Amino acid sequence: MKIKSWAEPYKIKMVELLKMTSPEERKAAIGKAGYNTFLLKSEDVYIDLLTDSGTSAMSDRQWAGMMFGDEAYAGSRNYYKLEEAVQSIYGYKYLVPTHQGRGAEHLLSQVMIKKGDIIPGNMYFTTTRLHQELAGGTFRDVIIDEAHDPDCEFPFKGNVDLNKLEDLVREFGAERIPYVSIATTVNMAGGQPVSMENLKALRAFTNKHGIKIIHDMTRVAENAWMIKQLEKGYKNKTTAEIVREICDLTDGATMSAKKDALVNIGGFLALNDYDVFEEARNLVVVYEGLHTYGGLAGRDMEAMAIGIRESVSDDHIHARVGQVHYLGNLLKKAGIPIVKPVGTHGVFIDAKAFLPHLSQDEFPAQSLAAELYLASGIRTMERGVVSAGRNKKTGAHNYPKLELVRLTIPRRVYTQAHMDVVTETVVELHKQREQITGLEMVYEPRYLRFFQARFKKKE
Q1: Which of 68, 289, 301, 309 could form a disulfide with 82, with the two C-beta atoms 3.0–4.6 Å apart?
Q2: How confident is the model at residue 416 (pLDDT cuts 50, 70, 90)?
Q3: What is the C-alpha separation between 291 and 283, in angstroms, rounded?
Q4: Which of 10, 73, 443, 447 is catalytic?
Q5: Annotated catalytic residue: which of 37, 98, 126, 185?
Q6: What is the tally of structural domains in the chain?
């Protein structure tokens, strides 16, 4: 007998009670937060889909592992257990632990980028691009054009356009490109995966030109699962085997373990080049902590080592991605404009199509995120013009083609019933979409403005 439905590969042992708020309370809360969902207090949120970063539920084995934390300042045994997990599951030779992913991005950028360098990538990510720029580099997008079209159903919209990459090499020379930055999956495109075929072609191209590939492996297991489902020749391979094949095609990686690796804090820089590793190991002492803890407690490294192994379980990743697709399919069926196909860590609403009466200067995605919270206490986040920031030369807004609201699902936290509530809220709000007004920005921080910017209703 073949069962078509999936179910969570775990049972619930402990619960955290949620707070229900009134419309009046939510109106006061979002107003106090300057219509920025990042500035809401978590206690005022009912279903929190702001991010999947550090918000997942750890397993009983991870919690048990926390008790084995060796909090020695130097040479913690948990570091060596983490190192062994990274080497055996991902295949990278050298490990530099960091407090989270952006710590790894900072170290990598300082070591590998010099002023005037060009860093191609399959669509920017906010913190990654900022660290590249602060080191004197310039990010250039080489993702395929399909990634910028929310209605395109191409299954691997995270792929690199090798013609765009070749144009950059021809324009600037390979010597000015320290590495190609490859994210699995691509967050800003809607959680879209990269195909193995494309990675192999990219590897051949970079080998020819002597360019490294650095892998943002934050959601590599989710990408591997999509390869298993969609790419010829991978159906009978395990997620773990596909993850290893992806990593073997790259020269190093930054990791925010707060996503795939199922921990609440932590990350690392993993490398195959000893000279780059040696420089990063020296710098980590300056910015993060000693090279055997990198800003983490021993117990955090223990939980991460266990989480890495749990993350590549087929049962786990099937249920994790399955819940995202459950929500995405409900919204598609209801006629809600979302990024297609459904990605792996969240569902992305196309705010331009949802609110066609608002221009990007009125921040439609930010407006929609605020309205979702007002409707029922669901917290989401903007991935549009606010996240894109400003042009460094002109000071004008960057206007991305994608103006999205991200409904990000934490791992092992919510049930399908929560997804049903989210769907009902979005559908009801869509019926009233013409009543939604835009916002204007009244405070803008210097860096990564989407975290702390404040807005008010446009009059």
Answers
A1: 301
A2: very high
A3: 9
A4: 73
A5: 126
A6: 2
Helix (H, G, I), strand (E, B) or coil at 182: strand
**Among residues 278, 311, 344, which one ends one of the domains?**
311
- The verdict on 329 and 209 lying in the same domain is no
The domain that contains 372 carries what CATH number?
Answer: 3.90.1150.10
3-state secondary structure of 310: helix
94 flagged as catalytic:
no
**Residue 11 resides in a domain:** no
Mean pLDDT of the chain: 96
CA distances (Å), origin 321, targets 63, 78, 143, 427: 23, 29, 23, 22
Q: Kindly state the tokens that stand for 340.
A: 């297609």
Domain boundary residue, one of 311, 339, 364: 311
Given 125, 156, 373, 414, the catalytic residue: 125
| pTM for this model (two decimals) | 0.95
Q: What is the mean pLDDT of residues 176-199?
A: 97
Q: How many of the other CB atoms lie within 10 Å of CB of 394?
A: 8
Q: Is 73 a known active-site residue?
A: yes
Cα distance between residue 415 and residue 184, in whole Å = 25
In a domain, 17, yes or no: no
Q: Per the residue annotation, which of 216, 260, 300, 350 is the catalytic one?
A: 216
Task: Show the tokens assigned to 211.
Answer: 């360019």
344 is catalytic: no
On whether residue 9 sits in a domain, the answer given is no
Question: Is 172 part of the annotated catalytic residue set?
Answer: no
Q: Which of 212, 259, 320, 412 is catalytic?
A: 259
Share of the chain above pLDDT 90, in %: 96
| Average pLDDT over every residue of 210-221 | 98
Does 1 have pLDDT greater than 90?
no
SS3 (DSSP) at 11: coil
Specify the 3-state DSSP secondary structure of 286: helix
In a domain, 6, yes or no: no
Active site residue 259: yes
Exactly one of 102, 129, 352, 383 is catalytic; name it.
383
Residue 160, domain CATH? 3.40.640.10
Q: Establish whether 383 is a catalytic residue.
A: yes
**Number of residues that this document lists for the chain:** 459
User: What are the residues whose beta carbons fall under 8 Å from the beta carbon of 82, sequence distance 6 or more?
Assistant: 95, 97, 268, 301, 302, 304, 305, 308
Q: Quick one: average pLDDT of 201-217?
A: 98
Domain boundaries, position 145? 60-311
Mean pLDDT throughout 331-351? 97
